[in-house]
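Project standup — Tuesday

K.O.: blocked on the structure for the chain from last sprint. Re-posting the sequence here as requested.
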Amino acid sequence: MKRRNNNKQFLVLGLGRFGDSLARSLCRMGHEVLAVDNDAEMVESIAPFVTQAVQADATDEEALRQLGAENFDAAVVAIGNIRDSILVTVLCKEAGIPHVTAKAVDELHAKVLRKVGADRVVFPEQDMGVRVAKSLVTPSILDMMSLTEEYQIAELIAPAQWYGRTLMEINVRRNYGLSVLAIQRGGEFIASPGADAMLQENDVLLVLGRQENIAAMEQQNGGTV
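H.V.: unblocked you, prediction finished:
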């Protein structure tokens, strides 16, 4: 594939639910994506939504070479079969791909993937389960991402008590230990809002803070803020 501008080139190996969704998302973000699977139907299904889709056996070293694996910025091994995912991860690293992310089904699988060179290991099903669980327990928090063991970024529905007040008046940082990174208002996205930004009904705030501060914010959402 020919690189366009400064976009990255991704090789996505395995087009199950995770691989398919990831490949489409990367392409929507403007990156170059080569999607690969040995199932012709899966390849045909994703072809209109990625830069290129190819039917090939990723466990075949020669097949990876013909795909030009060494030219990609990163590869995602999204193969469900444990043996195959380990083998393909090894082949990707041997091909010289700078960054390889691999999908794991459990901790033992993840440990082996790291041992054979995976730069990052992800647990799609487990992570989604955790996110859905959090959304059920804390309905005012739409989504959450852990940056470290201490800090998180969360999408928080603005409390009704904040409507009609500016960020300066609320003083979110001093009173709640949170930094407001952006405001989502309908189809509008306000990045780095100023202190004079006034909150409106149904605003969604993208906030950064310690886990305990985000949890405390959730607890106070039902009361007077």
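K.O.: great, moving the ticket to review. Confidence is low (pLDDT under 50) at residues 136-140. The domain at 9-124 is CATH 3.40.50.720 (Rossmann fold).
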